[in-house]
Design goal:
It is a single chain. Helix 6 runs parallel beside helix 7. The chain is about 40% helix and about 15% strand. Strand 10, helix 11 and strand 11 form a beta-alpha-beta unit. The chain is α/β, with parallel strands linked by helices and about 375 residues long. The strands form three sheets. Strands 11-10-9-8-7-6-5-12 form an eight-stranded parallel β-sheet. The chain has two domains: about 120 residues, Enolase-like, domain 1 (2-Layer Sandwich), CATH 3.30.390; about 250 residues, TIM Barrel, CATH 3.20.20.120. Bound molecules: magnesium ion. Magnesium ion (MG) binds next to loops.
């Protein structure tokens, strides 16, 4: 099978839906076509669609030149072809995020060609019952729901985030992450305390403060309070550029530290693990450099006593790729999930409905060939953006 075409289209909620309320901003959809009528699909989160269009397309575009006419052997080989072509560029940022999205689409295609779901081609399910949060055989993937609010800090934030957490728990979801952004240290602790009180003991609860602090003592003070609340992990207390403060905090708390949502390439994750001493890695399956790169990140984390919980504040097109990684990875108890039930985005909602169903808070291992996400044709039309 040979790659015959690359196509980019753009979907989004449009200007009427606020991204801070869950609206999907213009999102490039990448398709990699092969002879025989097969098409691999991915989305390209956080890269301006115009940038994607400029480098993904016909034979005169950067990635078109590299991929068109290539035989579809193992995705790792095509990943290497793309990576090697970037030897004189910075090998980070948008170019790797686009490479990663192409890699996911190529895995989708590869699975379709072989008639197997991608997680089986990654190595099959490898977790034992002792590695799953419930101690049962992990034949399913557990999403945790990320919760935000329309306002930050104080009573309004507490009330809205707790209401959303409780609603999702009532819908059957089994883990949530609150996000007390732009808040005082006291409000961060109070947010976690209220969420714990509402959800009850034992319900997996994470806290993300989005790079809120700059000094280690404040981080330690907050982390020590979170220890008492049985927090699954404490995400990005400090700016992400320099992992040293993370290591100093990690030495002073037993709450696991999480980072990696913007990490590109295994080398940045190696830095978070070795210099940052973080124990939860959060690669996005496209941003990090694709499923091919995510597999390397899992290997690095596994040898260092860390976990990999794929990040995803985007749609369930990306979420489908996370499910495959989690199905295979022996060190992935959770994947991130922006549940459409608590946001105001019609597109987010429809993309979730088209994705793998969450039943009783769990996602069954997919059995369709490839990634197995079908983007409905009429949805593409209705949410299509001309840009
Ligand atoms: Mg985050």
């Amino acid at each position: 099978m040979f790659i015959t075409h690359l196509r980019v289209s753009v979907i989004g909620d449009g200007p009427g839906v606020d991204p801070d309320k869950g609206g999907v901003e213009p999102l490039a959809i990448i398709e990699v076509g092969a002879d025989g009528g097969f098409t691999g699909l991915s989305e390209c989160f956080r890269v301006p669609p115009g940038v994607v269009r400029a480098v993904v397309g016909g034979p005169d575009t950067h990635f078109g030149r590299l991929l068109l006419g290539q035989e579809l052997t193992h995705p790792e080989r095509l990943w290497q072809v793309m990576w090697d072509a970037l030897i004189h560029t910075n090998r980070r940022g948008w170019e790797i995020m686009i490479l990663g999205a192409l890699d996911v689409a190529i895995w989708d295609l590869y699975g379709q060609m072989l008639g197997q779901p991608v997680w089986k081609l990654l190595g099959g399910a490898q977790r034992g019952p002792f590695q799953s949060p419930t101690g049962t055989l992990p034949v399913q993937v557990t999403p945790y729901c990320t919760i935000v609010s329309d306002v930050w800090g104080g009573e309004a934030m507490f009330t809205q985030q707790v209401a959303r957490a409780v609603k999702l728990a009532e819908l059957g979801y089994r883990a949530v992450k609150v996000e007390p952004m732009f808040s005082t240290p006291a409000d961060v602790i109070e947010m976690a305390r209220r969420a714990r009180a509402a959800l009850g003991p034992g319900f997996p609860l994470m806290v993300d403060v989005g790079y809120l602090f700059n000094d280690v003592p404040t981080g330690v003070r907050v982390a020590r309070a979170l220890e008492e609340l049985d927090i699954e992990f404490f995400e990005t207390p400090f700016p992400v550029d320099h992992p040293e403060p993370y290591a100093r905090l990690a030495a002073q708390t037993r709450v696991p530290l999480a980072m990696g949502e913007h990490g590109v390439t295994r080398w940045e994750f190696l830095d978070m693990l070795d210099r940052g001493k973080c124990s939860v890695m959060q690669p996005y399956m496209t941003t990090c450099g694709g499923l091919t790169e995510a597999r390397h990140i899992v290997s690095l984390a596994q040898g260092r006593g860390a976990q990999v919980c794929p990040g995803n504040w985007s749609t369930q097109i990306l979420g489908a790729a996370s499910v495959h990684l989690a199905a295979w990875s022996p060190i992935t108890p959770f994947i991130e999930f922006a549940a459409a039930e608590v946001f105001e985005s019609p597109l987010r909602s429809e993309l979730q409905q088209a994705g793998f169903p969450v039943q009783n808070g769990r996602i069954a291992l997919p059995d369709r060939p490839g990634i197995g996400y079908d983007l409905p044709q009429d949805l593409r039309q209705r949410f299509r953006l001309e840009m």
